[in-house]
What we know:
With 167 residues, the chain is of the alpha/beta class. 46% of the residues lie in helices and 14% in strands.
Amino acid sequence: MKKTILITGASSGIGRETAKFFQKKGWNVVATMRNPETETELTGLKNVFVTKLDVLDLDSINQAITYGIEKFERIDVLLNNAGYGAYGPLESFPREKILRQFNTNVIGLLDVTRAILPHFRENKNGIIMNVSSMGGKMTFPLGSLYHGTKFAVEGISESLRYEVEQF
């Protein structure tokens, strides 16, 4: 049976290129993004299923996982890739932008992971890969929001490894 990977943030950058890489290697790919209706390249690839997933929307997270499992019978790998960087002096950011940065890069990652864990546990199999950054290991001026989120991703990833190592 072919392996299946679900990728968040597959509309551009690392997510898009990773989707194409796994598709070329013969995998099934669930390529998720906020606006799948605008996607043309990935929808034309064999064994690629493009669907909506907004990491800020629990319903879309659950639907994307359900649709991916319905399409390919199972998901073997989760690549948490969705995210962005906000840069500037901390005092210049309104609270809404601070929350959006953390909700997208940290809470969204946690929500997607929590949603797929029962499937992995049921199958006694699953790999979770979280895209982080050197910004999760070292900092630079004007990056307090971004670095804060990426340090969180590093800590979450390390701790989660111990929680799920049995599968």
